Amino acid sequence: MSASYTPASVISGLSNPGLFRQDAYINGQWVKGSSGKTFEVRDPATDKLIGTSAELDIKQVKQAIDDASAAFKEFKKTTPRYRANLLRKMYELMHENKEDLAKLVTLENGKTSTEATNEVVYAASFYEWFSEEAPRIYGDTIPSVDPTKRIHTIKQPIGVCGIITPWNFPAAMITRKVGAAIAAGCTVVIKPGAETPYSALALAELAEKAGVPKGVINIVTAEESIEIGKEFCSNPIVKKISFTGSTRVGKILMQQSSSTLKKLSFELGGNAPFIVFEDADIDEAVKGAIASKFRGTGQTCVCVNRIYAHSSIHDEFAKKLADEVSKFKIGAGFEKDTTHGPMITDRAVAKVHEHVTDALEKGGKLMVGGKPATELGPNFYHPTVISNVNSSMRVVSEETFGPLAAIVPFDTEEQVIESANSTEVGLAAYFYTKDYGRVSRVSEALESGMVGVNVSGLGEASFPFGGVKESGFGREGSKYGLDDYLVIKGVVVGY
């Protein structure tokens, strides 16, 4: 794809043009907003209009919930093997349409073609994983104290699930939730991020082709999520909400759900520490920091936010990291040589620059970057490394969500663990060391739902994904991923 690409040329170049949908999807039908209203979706790299999407009203959202409820009455009776076959077909269709799906991800999200393709493969893996888990939803037999009784448990689907997903992984955040819901026998109503509705709608198109019954998967689109989120929370038909997003919004949804006592699973904000101990392989730690910090141009929930480097290797690590970051090439995701794409909005750029300015004013040392890339457009920021960071700086206490690597020196293991745990959130944490005693010691001491030791990647379908503290609760993926979509029924039989 050359520099002369336009959204129209990308869309017209799809091998399967039916994947580009602008209407919402309810009960197996493509629907427009009742009022005829739409909202615009723009390419973050060029700010050019990609298309529009239907602005649904609350009456239509309620209808989607009702349709999902009607579908659930039959879908819950299907066999796990039937649902496994559906998921397997959805997985295969995603791979058959991998290039087109990746183009849509790059177009609406901005990430590079390579990253977008990786996301599609990652997203499909959840359909595969849960296709294999669906037939293994087992109950238990429990001995009774009374010899005339038998106790056993049944795991049953919870019901209609409201799913709210963000823009930063427009395909994977959906499949990770929907895969588990379908495997369990639930039906779903999905509200995708307004910045990235097309990946979600493309997945609905493929689900239909795979034979998913009407009403099982519904996509409601709107520019604003507040009223839809409130409807999900207050509607008694919705039995569970799965939300990925900010801690602030998660708290609101939790409050709004209290009247109906829904089951909730939240993956919320993070502020991931990345610790490089004095005995670490520095070159490997640099590679890990780059992979984790700058993935998606720093716009992922498990991105490194605070890098702690032991004082004895701080300067060496900072220089090597800055040297590698200086080789990045930022630009539109479709450009062949681009390593890192735009940020999602100019507001996101402004936040990064605020953190950079604050750190430099408080004594941080700029190693590379440090300014918006206005020559490329309003949504670009030069990848930045700042060393000699301290706890007074905003980048340490706040999640930046952008391409800023802030390096804090430390002296002792006890000190860095205390610093790493000094936030209200606890999603992901990473550390590099060759000391196997330290591996267990620090892994257990870090207050985080996920820990990477000498690795930067936490993303695979078999891994339990989720946080602790104000990063939320519940787990996605892995053998634990079905739990939040199931209820356990105890049965006592007398004879």
From TrEMBL:
Catalytic activity: succinate semialdehyde + NADP(+) + H2O = succinate + NADPH + 2 H(+); succinate semialdehyde + NAD(+) + H2O = succinate + NADH + 2 H(+)
Keywords linked to the UniProt accession: Oxidoreductase
An MF annotation (GO) of this entry: succinate-semialdehyde dehydrogenase (NAD+) activity
EC number annotated for this UniProt entry: 1.2.1.16
Entry GO CC: cytoplasm
Top-rank taxon: Eukaryota
Residue ranges the record marks as coiled coil: none
Biochemical pathway: Amino-acid degradation; 4-aminobutanoate degradation
Presence of the UniProt keyword Manganese in the record: no
SUPFAM superfamilies recorded: ALDH-like
Pfam families referenced in this protein's UniProt entry, alphabetically: Aldedh
Domain Aldehyde dehydrogenase: 30-490
Family per similarity comment: Belongs to the aldehyde dehydrogenase family.
Name of this protein: Succinate-semialdehyde dehydrogenase
Organism: Nadsonia fulvescens var. elongata DSM 6958
Lineage: Eukaryota, Fungi, Dikarya, Ascomycota, Saccharomycotina
